[in-house]
Predict the structure.
Amino acid sequence: MAEMKPASRMVSGQFINIQRLHVAKLLTDEVGSEATYDTPIDLGKVLRSIDIKPSNSSADLYADGQSIDTATNTASYELTFDTAALPLEYVAYLLGHKCENGVMVANKDDVAPYFAVMFQSDKRNGSKRLTKFFKVMFQEPSVKGSTKEESISYQTPTLTAKAIYRLSDGNSYTYADTESAGLDAEIASNWYTTV
């Protein structure tokens, strides 16, 4: 497949908001097969911020007193979600815990499942950048509390997760930009309904 060279002097709207956090449980991911997912779930108005940090490594090859080649690799992505308070049912679902009648129990044998994670970044010009990570495992959230003082401050949880590459096709994430001329409108309209 030939590499597509982008046009000169392209512009992009500036990001002003992040929203619409959705997850879909990964059901199967095997080499040589297509990955399958459960129906996506909209987690509601919970996303305050997100930080995506690639886990990169690099190496240089030296010969005759200089670097003659360099190689880089991205092994995974560390995702940090600052959220409003999540219902216990969502916390249990993301971490593989049990939650019944308003009581969540974390057991030593619980195994956190993998999820696809979807969200969007809104731009000032009205367009959106849609993001989808295909294989993400959430970790126990950090919880911090403090007493109420003269000034009220919200105490919000932080969810961390690791995104890795799917076995089925080697993909980790995808972006779609609604202001890109070639974007099929159906891709944007179905972003949250299927992985």
